Amino acid sequence: MHYHGGSTPTYWDSKANRFKVPKTPTLDQVFFYLQEGRYRFPRKADFESFYSDILNIYTDYDTDQRSRTYKNNGSDDFCQLLNLCILGIIKSFGYPQTWLG
User: The whole model's pTM is what?
Assistant: First the structure.
């Protein structure tokens, strides 16, 4: 997977042998699903280190370009994993997934 900054939907790049993914719209979807409570996580004691990966991501607004991007101030691996999982579910089964949450 490779993030791109445009609004082009996720597509397969056969030359690069990877999916090209629009970062901001797909992470918007991850955070929307988090807000709706569509994910189920283990108890807090078992999940604490992964939880911080989600909290390390923040939005940055560029007033000149009138654009919003996601940035991180530490590890964000688990949040990226959530993004990949949602993309895989949608690519495999279609959208929307009523059973997702």
Answer: 0.82
Secondary structure of residue 67 in the 3-state scheme? strand
Which sequence spans correspond to the domains of the chain? 2-93
C-alpha to C-alpha distance for 23 and 28, rounded to whole angstroms: 8
27 burial via Cβ count (<10 Å: 0-12, 13-18, 19+): buried
Q: Which of 6, 39, 38 is nearest to 25 (CA)?
A: 6
- 50-100 confidence digits (pLDDT tens): 888 999 999 999 999 888 899 999 999 999 999 988 888 887 887 666 655
As given in the structure block, the two tokens for residue 93 are 């089964």
84 contact partners, CB below 8 Å, separation of at least 6: 1
